[in-house]
Structures
1.
Amino acid sequence: MALSASTNLPHHVDRVTAVFVNEDFLRHTSELVGGTLESFSVDGDTAGAFSTTTVRTIPTNRMPDIARKFVGESLKVTQLESWDAPAADGSRLSNITLKVSGAPLDVSAVQRLVSDGGSTRIELEGTVTSSVPFLGGKIAEAAEPMVGKALNIQSTQAQAWLESH
């Protein structure tokens, strides 16, 4: 299943990037959906190429009942992001991989923070797949809207965070 989203924020790419790697912001977005931020780490200097690892526990109460029977009341999600150094105009690219403990899902996405004057256009493109024979497509189809929403929360909440901090 395909993920695709785009959002515009009236802030420079460097400010948006700083929010996306702010542990307090990540804790806020985790708690917003009823989850918890278990851990967060940054490897490298965020002024250049770097990577992050974010581990969250999220509730499954919004998943279809059939899926909850397999995965339980919560999921542990590890989000790995590999950020490129900024382009000449400040734009950034991040390759995102989600690993969901206890669920047969593979999520990969590319997030672009495109410099647009003093603003940033956030573009997200990715895929959700499942390796389960015969049922994999249905599992990915059921998970895709929730994965898309989870990835989009970061973009939409960044605006409010930047305005209040």
2.
Amino acid sequence: MKHSTNQLTRSGRGPARRIGRSLALVLPVVLVLSGTLAVTRVNWSGNPSDSVLTASSEDLAARAAAAPAPQDVLRDQLLLELQDKDPGTALTHLQQAVNGQPSLAKHCTSIARALGRAAVRVYGPSRAQSYSRPVCDTSFATGVAAAHS
């Protein structure tokens, strides 16, 4: 009986022991290789222009500076829509954009004022005022009044 109990104990830890031994051999090799690769990526020259990280961050900064802000894109789209269709359609789309993307709410009044000023240029003060509605409070009407005065 003692022989069968001893065999069960050995077979119970056999696969785990083999996996442990394999990890004990492979893990240090992986760590040394990854450390070596990390050291080769460091800019040891001290010259920032040689750095891969600096180059990529400069590219990101240039792209961020070149890309217009979402509120500027929305304002430009709505100004074009105001000219192509009418101020009412542009105001409806402004309200939908603010409802769909709440981060634009803080820019809503300035966009509505810009639409009001553009409406006066395109339609004249009386007709532009007829499109006024309470989008972003009364900012559109304020823009109309400011452009008319």
3.
Amino acid sequence: MIELQPFTINDASELISKIKNERMLLQFAGPAYHFPLTTEQLEEDLTNEKRTLFKIVNRADGKIIGHAQIFLKEETFLLGRILIWDENNRGKGYGKKVMQQLLRYGFDHFDKEIAELNVYDWNTGAIECYKKVGFAIDPTIRNEAKIDQETWVSLNMKIHRKTFEIQES
């Protein structure tokens, strides 16, 4: 179905071309990037030893269909900047597969017991996808981002290694 492959600077132009506006960039990456997304911003992530960047590839035709990152934190690892860019590829189970592969990579490569992610509360499709993989909302962590005249509330979701292993089996 899909596989994660290392993202390189050669993949930057395709990712950049998919980020059409400031709202899409904020949804995809949170407030860390600024619009327009640039090769320099992605290079900074690529040189950050705490970040692992992936392109999401459709095995059937070898085409890149998305992007994802893992950020190594003190106690956990954070999944983020996840995007399946073609809306025709949404609702096909790719999101769940991406999450499972990111978690498998993270738990296999980092000595952490918990993975986490942040998602805007209005992104109900993504929240449901994450719950299906085993994530649960941590009610103690909430953040806000402002765009135009709106305030977006970011929820934090976590999964324990044991929960993931039970889900996987």
